[in-house]
Amino acid sequence: MRSEIVLAETVQITGFEGDAVEAYSARCLSDTPRGGVVVIHHMPGYDRATKEIARRFAEMGYNAVVPNLHHREAPGAEPDDAAAASRSAGGVPDGRLVGDVAGARKYLLSLSNSNGKVGVIGYCSGGRQSFLAACSLEFNAAVDCYGAFIITPPGAEFPLRVHPIADLAPNLSCELLGLFGADDMHPSPAEVDELSKVLKDTGKAHRFHTFEGAGHAFFAVDRPSYRVEAASQGWGLIGEFFSEKLA
Q1: Parallel, antiparallel, or unpaired for β 20-28 and 6-14?
Q2: Contact 165/135 with Cβ under 8 angstroms?
Q3: pLDDT, tens only, 154-208
Q4: Which of 14, 73, 80, 162 is buried deepest, with most CB atoms within 10 A?
Q5: pLDDT tens sequence across 132-143
Q6: Residues 203, 217, 226, CA angle at the centre, nearest 5°?
Q7: Cβ contacts of residue 175 below 8 Å, gap of 6+?
Q8: What is the mean pLDDT of each run of 10 residues along the chain (247 residues)?
Q9: Helix (H, G, I), strand (E, B) or coil at 247
Q10: Is 53 left (phi over 0), alpha (psi -120 to 50) or beta?
Q11: pTM, two decimal places
């Protein structure tokens, strides 16, 4: 179900504690009912590459929205500056993340062509946050793209003040697709295996894929970490997963 007529624009959603939060919406201008996707951006920020991802989901036939998680720290700032401000504050608090994603989910469900199904996907820190959101809210599908610090806490060299959240696994509301790089250290292959074990032990459906020759951020087309083969295969898996879960 692809769409050739897409509207992409900056919108405002209601996030954590009723805050007005900037977001980027890419939606299909068709009355045909369709699923929605909340896109959680990576730590480098609410940037052009992430907005391109939202437009890609819209072209695939979904309504998509990206909440600007760094909006409060640096409203109107360039992505790198906003990310730096957020990083210096210890990162996005988990409770606030859940509130902002809840607002994004509500936005998608409010669209006239929503079919009532919503998925969530996140990259890098957003991968961890996608897991967190799917354990805290009702979703029909969740994708974790190389999300770190679900199993182990960040080391002292990381400014992020986050903690492991694997204990939330019993609350996972939907099946989880995980896409990881074999050369990544955050999360490492051992951490990916441990998360898979936790999910298996709690009876939670999941599909994990680890790509050889890929490290962290292999989907990032504007970074040296980009790996064409892994990203291409990953997009194929995402397309199949969302087609199954959100149609």
Answers
A1: antiparallel
A2: yes
A3: 988 888 889 999 999 999 999 999 999 999 999 999 999 999 999 999 999 999 9
A4: 162
A5: 999 999 999 999
A6: 130
A7: 141, 142, 204, 205, 206, 207, 241, 245
A8: 84 98 96 97 95 97 97 88 90 97 98 98 98 99 98 90 96 99 98 98 98 98 97 98 97
A9: coil
A10: alpha
A11: 0.97
The partner residues of 6 in beta bridges, in order of sequence, read 28
Which residues fall within 8 angstroms of residue 209, CB to CB, at 6 or more apart?
177, 178, 179, 180, 233, 234, 237
- The two tokens of residue 95 are 């409770």
Q: What distances in angstroms separate CA 31 from CA 22, 35, 63, 105, 111, one per listed residue?
A: 25, 12, 12, 19, 10
Tell which residue, 156, 159, 157, 127, has the closest CA to residue 143: 127
Contacts of 64 (CB under 8 A, 6+ apart): 25, 26, 27, 36, 37, 38, 39, 53, 54, 55, 57, 58
Closest CA relative to residue 45, chosen from 94, 102, 85, 104: 85
Any idea which residue has 């083969």 for tokens? 229
CATH (one of 2.30.280.20, 3.10.580.10, 3.40.50.1820, 3.40.50.720) for 6-246: 3.40.50.1820
